[in-house]
Amino acid sequence: MASPLLFVIAALAPLRIFAQKCQIEMNIVIDESGSVTASGFQSEKNFAADLVSDVYKIDQGQTISVISYDTDARVQSNWVVDDPTLPDTIRNFARTGGGATNTDRALQLCEFCRG
């Protein structure tokens, strides 16, 4: 079975074309639960950082929220992409979780971040 991350990557392939036509408000959700290994967590952060870097190259000024979750969910950031060091900030997030996997709570925060 393919990884859910692969489906996300495939879904984001047309991002460059899409971003040139409209404003993006993006929520990036990072799983910090105990089921995610240290290398898996780093892979999540690298993917998120690369995505933010691509958005920055297309159009500075897009809104991106980063939400991490385990048993609970936290808004790590809610940025307007206007800083080229933002991907490094994401790569350097410290892991604070390790509990159960409460994806539902993270998705609720996504709705909150959208306003």
Question: Can you tell me about this structure?
Answer:
This protein is an alpha+beta fold and 115 residues long. The protein has helices at residues 4-12, 15-19, 38-58, 86-91, 103-114, and strands spanning 25-31, 63-69, 73-80. Strands 1-2-3 form a 3-stranded mixed sheet, with helices on both faces. The longest helix is centred in the middle third of the chain and has 21 residues, at 38-58. It is globular and about 35 Å long. The N and C termini lie far apart (35 Å). Mean pLDDT is 77; it is low at 1-19.
Summarize this structure as a short list of keywords or feature phrases:
three-stranded mixed beta sheet; 115 residues; globular; alpha+beta; 3 strands; disordered N terminus
For the secondary structure, the number of strands is 3
Summarize the helix and strand pattern as letters: HHEHEEHH
> Which word captures the global form?
globular
> What is the gyration radius calculated from CA atoms?
14 Å
Helix content: 40-55%
**How many distinct helices?**
5
Low-confidence parts, pLDDT < 50 over ≥5 residues?
1-19
| Oligomeric form | single chain
Distance linking N and C termini: 35 Å
Helix-strand makeup class = alpha+beta
Strand order of the largest sheet: 1-2-3
How much of the residues is beta strand, in percent? 15-25%
Mean pLDDT: 77
Quick one: biggest sheet? Answer: 3 strands, mixed
